[in-house]
Amino acid sequence: MHANLQTPIMATPVKMHAAKPETRKEPADDFAALDHIGTVLSLGREDVLFYEGDMADHYFKVVTGAIRFCKLLADGRRHVSDFYLPGDFIGLDGEANYLFTAEAVTQSSVVRYTRRSVDALAWQEPRIGRRLLSIACRGLSAAQQKQVLLGRKSAEERIASFLLDLAGRNGETDRVSLPMSRTDIGDHLGLTMETVSRGLSHLRSEGIISLENSHQILFCDRDALEGLADAA
Q: Where exactly does CATH 1.10.10.10 map onto the chain?
């Protein structure tokens, strides 16, 4: 189901309080000071966090759920640039305006920080600034790797790479949880929904994966999956 990017859906603040420490991606003590300056927002499925072109006055950190970055192309197609999962920071690119629309894939919660307060804190505590810069650099590296993914790999190789990358980000080794739809995956990988479904079905028929349900995939032969991902 494609989100309607023309009709605003307002994100609803739950309450103002210190954000709970998130330890999945970064040491908790590195960002402990941020926990005192954030506001928690609750988002329902398909709610919009911000629109492309809005003033980029805030940084965000995903606490639960998943957020997708998307853009409507001139021909009406949708491009999903990235998915942000618990522990991921949003908005660290330093642009004056958001380059994509951010939508909740599922019911989600995020912590919102004003840029002014985070930048001031990073000036006072250089360690925080260094950690945020490191995250931003990793995001740039991931974007560069995606160019290879889309430009050099077959559909099945793209799907294998996506599954392994998402599993790694979730801290999983023998399975992956997919909060997003097949359409979301296709719009992210430059494939149709039907191609994504056929690719997953072929991986299953080859005994490489098995599907517990539409959102839970087990890796039956991780070596084979990694071989596909590294083929290009």
A: 153-229
Q: Is 182 left (phi over 0), alpha (psi -120 to 50) or beta?
A: alpha
Q: What is the CA 171 to chain-centroid distance, rounded?
A: 14
| C-alpha span between 19 and 38 (Å, rounded) | 6
From first to last of its 232 residues, what are the pLDDT tens digits of the chain? 433 333 333 333 333 333 433 334 444 456 777 777 889 999 999 999 999 999 999 999 999 999 999 998 888 889 999 999 998 999 888 789 999 999 999 999 999 999 898 888 878 878 877 878 777 777 666 766 666 666 678 899 999 999 999 999 888 889 999 999 999 999 999 999 999 999 999 999 999 999 988 899 999 999 999 999 887 5
Q: In the chain, which residues fall in CATH 2.60.120.10?
A: 12-149
Q: Model pTM greater than 0.85?
A: no
| H-helix or E-strand spanning residue 120 | helix 115-124
Task: State the Cα–Cα distance between residues 97 and 214, nearest whole angstrom.
Answer: 35
Q: Which fold has domain 153-229?
A: Arc Repressor Mutant, subunit A (1.10.10)
CATH T-level assignment (fold) for domain 12-149: Jelly Rolls (2.60.120)
User: 3-state DSSP call for residue 80?
Assistant: strand
